[in-house]
Amino acid sequence: MLEELDIRNLGPIREATIAPAAGMTAITGETGAGKSMLLSAIRLVSGGAAESSRVSAGADEAWAQAIFALSDDAVASEHSGDTNDAGDDADSGFTGAAVAVAKAHDAGVDPEDGELFLSRTVRASGRSRAVLGGKSVPRSVLGAIAGELVIIHGQTDQLKIAAAARQREFLDRVAGDEAELAAYRKAWDALAAMDERLERLRSQESSARQQADYLRESIDRINRTDPQPGEDEELKACRERIENAADIAQGVGSALGALDASQVDVDAADGASAVELINHAVTSLRAIRVGGTFSEQADRLESINADLGDVVFALSQELGDEGSVEDLDQINGRIHELGDLTRRWGPTLADVLAWRDKAAFDLEDLDASPEKVAELESERQTLYDAALAAADVLSAARVAAAADLGARVTEELGSLAMLGASLEVRVTPRDKADDPLGPYGRDDIAFLFTPFEGSPQLPMGKSASGGELSRLMLALELVAADTRGGADQTFIFDEVDAGVGGKAAVELGKRLARLARSAQVIVVTHLAQVASWADAQFVVTKEPPDADDDDLGVVTTIAEVNGETRVHEIARTLSGSESEASLDHARELLSDSRLTLPLAGAGAAGD
Predict the structure, then answer these.
(1) Cα(544)–Cα(548) distance, integer angstroms
(2) Is the dihedral of CA 171, 172, 177, 181 positive or negative?
């Protein structure tokens, strides 16, 4: 909610601080006193256009700051990461405050002690500066964040709801169709991704086709060679053995002759071999009839002889296994083939195989063959059918909510001095033959307003005055609050009481107070019957120029009124005088302006 609004040198307001109530706050004052400057300040911190003409006479700059207190849930959602996507879509299902926190976080600012500070400075020279939490930001960032925290219903702000997108967002909020919308958006995103892929295939340029040819030829070449991981290293080791075959044969033969002459030509053996000598030594030690160390040493020699036997067997397997010259030619040819692959796509054969696998994947997107296009078109049809089914479910939820919303708003309008006025919320599914799907379903949504009986039914924004539209928006917000519960937002109403008086004014104030049970409400009004329902009331007063400082011109002050001071203000608003009769009437009005169930945590109106 809006916790505090500070204003400096904005129009006739030299300095003012307003701390609205958590429930309903009324802004009253004489016509021309400067009540509109309060809305100008809100629009300024909401990223609105900066006009140097609004800077007070004699001042260098105007400044406005809004401090918003955020609920614990809104602040906690940012820390939990739940709002990562909240800022992307007004239909995310998160509260306005939670989305505002997410957008502030994206701008590099987090709430401090549960508060967000939005300020704007406008220099008399015309330049302005937007600040969020002490950090300079584009004014569009202030607009995006304030748009989630404050909703203004005034003559210059009503055209927003005339936009089809805003009407759809409002209907979805009332319908509570977050689950259906999320399911549809998932199906739509998959369909849109497939459409992009198909479009990419169909509009390939020559460079893309050349790249596809290159990938196809490269993959084919690698597949024909059929390399195996580590194969080149194994072949190089084999080649080295063949090239050194003579040295290997001579060395192995000599070693075997020394170790065990029976493994080689006996005639070539030079004396007894190591195995024979060790066997002789063992026989000699076993011949000694005395036990002890001689037997132990004989055992050790036998163990050594067993190890020598393993070495002899291993070396004997190496004889005659060096390959031929023909084998060497084949091996060199294969190494050359593999080397060509590693030079192009290496440096290792494992890298070559990885490149081939990735290239095959890339080729799927580049391959614009008729077969591939047909395959993707078949997949697209499946995705389209799924999206259409999800759109039908979403449309059904909207149609049901639209009928209920229109009926309930029409009922509320009758109590807001608009007998005969009605609202129809029309949901029209687009024809399936025209490819009806869009990012938010297949529905055309229109809010059609009839301001009085017999009037033609026209789209909102084209069929009512500013006051009528403000009351229509109040009725819409009331129904939304009754349907979905409290909104973590601030509603500001201007001109909502235009053309209203008597009993209808009392009903108007009562409904504003009712809305204030679930959201913060600020209303600029000239009716005592409306102001009397407020939890807090501020009076805007125009003071004549100071004789000692005529350069200041007319100065506007803003002050909260309580107790008897408020009684006098209500009396002045009622009759323009503060006679005893008017004061008694004001006290009675304040006493009667109470809801059956007052807003929790707020003082009763008139206290």
Answers:
(1) 12
(2) positive
Across 322-442, the runs of DSSP E, i.e. the strands, are 422-429
Q: Where are the extended beta strands (E) located within 342-459?
A: 422-429, 443-450, 458-459
Residue written as token pair 């979905």: 484
DSSP state for residue 347 in the 8-state scheme: S
CA distance 18 to 539: 10
Does pTM surpass 0.70?
Answer: no
CA distance 605 to 70: 24
Q: 578-587: which pairs have CB atoms within 8 A and are 24 or more residues apart?
A: 586/528, 586/532
Instruction: Report the share of the chain in percent with pLDDT over 70.
Output: 86
Q: What is the number of alpha carbons within 13 Å of residue 70 lying toward its C-beta?
A: 28
Q: In the structure encoding, which two tokens stand for residue 147, read together?
A: 């748009």
CA distances from 366 to 195, 208, 214, 446, 532 (A): 15, 7, 11, 43, 71
Measure the CA–CA gap between 213 and 539, rounded to whole angstroms. 78
Rounded distance between C-alpha atoms, residue 91 and residue 2, angstroms = 23
Number of H helices, E strands in the chain: 20, 15
Over the stretch 160-206, which tens digit does the pLDDT of each residue have? Answer: 777 888 899 999 999 999 999 999 999 999 999 999 988 887 776 55
461 vs 160, 292, 401, 500, 537, CA distance in Å? 9, 118, 22, 20, 30
pLDDT band at 129 (very low <50, low <70, confident <90, very high): very high
DSSP 532-599: TT-SEEEEEEEEPPBTTBGGG-SEEEEEEE-HHHHHHHHHHHHHSS--HHHHHHHHHHHHH---SSPP
Candidate ranges 268-282, 301-315, 582-596; pick with highest mean pLDDT:
582-596
Tell me the residue type at 6: D
CB 489 within 8 A of CB 453: no
pLDDT, tens only, 309-318: 888 888 777 7
pLDDT reading at 390 higher than 90: yes
Find the mean pLDDT for residues 10-34. Answer: 88
Q: CA 25, CA 519: separation in Å to the nearest integer?
A: 11
Inter-residue long-range contacts of 98-103, CB under 8 Å, 24+ positions, other chains counted: 98/73, 98/74, 98/488, 99/148, 100/68, 100/70, 100/74, 100/145, 100/146, 100/148, 100/149, 101/70, 101/74, 101/75, 101/77, 102/77, 102/78, 103/141, 103/144, 103/145, 103/148
Identify the weakest region by mean pLDDT among 120-124, 225-229, 577-581: 577-581
Tell me which amino acid residue 390 is: A
Phi and psi of 542, rounded to 5°?
A: -100, 125
Report the chain's terminal Cα–Cα distance, integer Å.
Answer: 22
Q: Which residue has the tokens 């904005």?
A: 10
CA-wise closest residue to 16 among 555, 498, 550? 555
User: With bands split at pLDDT 50, 70 and 90, how would you rate the model's confidence at 512?
Assistant: very high
Residue 154: beta bridge partners?
none
Q: Which two tokens stand for residue 567?
A: 């009684």
Helix segments in 84-205, DSSP class H: 96-106, 139-149, 159-162, 164-175, 178-202
3-state SS of 210-230 is: HHHHHHHHHHHHHHHHCCCCC
Cβ–Cβ contacts within 10 Å for residue 223, how many?
11
